[in-house]
Amino acid sequence: MQTARLGNDLYGEDPTANELEAAAARLLGKDSAVLMPSGVMANKVALSVLAEPDQLIAVGRLSHINLFEDSLPQRLLLPVDDSDEERFAEHLRSARDQVVALAIENTHLMREGHVMTPEAADRFARIGVPVHLDGARLMNAAAALDVPPADLAACATTVTLTLSKGLGAPIGSVLAGPEDMMNRARQSRLAMGGSLAQAGVVAAAGLVALRRPPQEFRTDHRGAARIRAAAEERWPGSTSPRTTPGTNIVIWSPPEAPGVVARLADRGIHVLPWGETSIRAVTHPGISERDIDHVVDAIGEM
């Protein structure tokens, strides 16, 4: 970041940002990509280029876009049941004539990092409207399935990828898609206050993040699996059965969850209360095997 080559990204003159965007587009199998300050902004910009004001966009009821991101002014979201993919696709087909686009999520945060396979994702592409893929943790899905990220993004017109979270960069996301849409996305980013003049400082860290190999994501996944197994052993029935490979998110529901969160915090372990009865833990590049040992021991000693 200290030695990044810089220019004015507002005019496409930052060589490091240009390099990152080209690398992200290749990785995701798209024509072009745009660096964004955050995943939320990347999703907002994507919806702005897929739909006109007052047009309806279908999203999952449990999706991050619906639960945690306010919709753009004058753009309407149609939340539909996405508790499983078959039901989600069925509802979307029923809503086909009401919407101009739809959004899916891979991995799915609220479903404990549920992974959508390329075959499952393809059913959404066949609905017949443009698809936006919220791929904040898409690299985790690709590593879990041992497939290229572009295979998972093939169903989508536009796709986001967060450079922080599982990739380890301090800031940033990318939005990728057709070149004409990405040109409009740059204008939308500017209007939302998301353009960075010397963006190379951020892009340099993003380039390092994109080079993270699949085996390192799988190390994160194994750590999450150990935490999950420890929670299930300590509180039988506190985890839910999985239908796809696990990734780096663990959600469990022990008795008196707030007290468990507090006791873990006393041991220097920071997890999130997830609703009133559950706990969420996430592994990432900053978590070592020794850290996982500490978490597993702390859970076992409760």
TrEMBL record:
A GO CC annotation recorded here is: cytosol
Query: GO molecular function of the protein, one example?
Result: L-allo-threonine aldolase activity
- Kindly state a single biological-process term from the GO annotations of this entry: glycine biosynthetic process
Cofactors needed by this protein, per the record, are: pyridoxal 5'-phosphate
The record's listing under Pfam families reads: Beta_elim_lyase
Q: Which UniProt keywords apply?
A: Pyridoxal phosphate
Where do the Aromatic amino acid beta-eliminating lyase/threonine aldolase domain residues begin and end? 1-233
The family line of this record is: Belongs to the threonine aldolase family.
What is the designated name of this protein? L-threonine aldolase
